[in-house]
Amino acid sequence: MELKELQDKHKGRTAFVVGAGPSLHFQDVEPLKNHITLAVNSGVLKVPFCDYFVSDDEGVAVWNYYMDDLPKLKCQCLLYEDKLKKFASHIPEERIIFFKHKIWYDIHKKKKYPEGVEMTKDAEKPIIGARTSVGTAIHFAYIMGCDPIVLLGSDCCYTDMKRYFWQFNGEKKVVKASNGRVFLPPLQVGKMNNRMLDNHCYDFIEYFHDLAFCEKNKNIHIIDASGGILNCFEKMDFETVLGKYGDR
Fold this sequence. Notes:
Distance between the termini: 24 Å
Largest sheet: 8 strands, parallel
Low-confidence stretches: none
CATH class: Alpha Beta
Number of helices: 5
Oligomer: single chain
CATH topology: sialyltransferase cstii, chain A
Number of strands: 12
CATH architecture: Alpha-Beta Complex
Helix content: 10-25%
Radius of gyration: 17 Å
């Protein structure tokens, strides 16, 4: 499949973008099998039946879900070419679509580029800049014509001292493919709405705020059903989403 084939591929259908936040541990994901689902990074362990896997981060290449699980699944893999092309040889070629990014933030100049989060419908143009691969998945869902685009597991905060769903008992663990070492998140550095956050959480909140309030994105229907602390998108619980948009 080529990028241009994604253009309006799922026009009018509800899409779910599945991150890896702790709220997913408490979420029944079985209904997602009836909907377009984009799994971001380790979120694929929760929804191995997903239609798409999305990642911008070359760091995924050391983890079991990318090296061991992903090649066995049926999902199409949307991978950031500059960082992941050299780590994609284990995935069947026909399942891979590489993409490019615009720039949202220049880490060296410490400068933001607002146009870097303006979403376009042209599948062959670079995807918006992203501090988190969830942003990339949102843009792809928009390109595919999905409406609404629903976020799950984008908590941007900790629950019970855990930042990821797979840190809870009963979930398949994320470990390094080479040595079985379990990933440990950074230490918490603050609180918001009485929820623990680390530096990454603060960065994600800032990024999503810029994405939501970009003038050209304001008519794109994004719903946050994660149960976290984001306040820049329409809030709705999962059951209400299914009741209102579940037949799309």
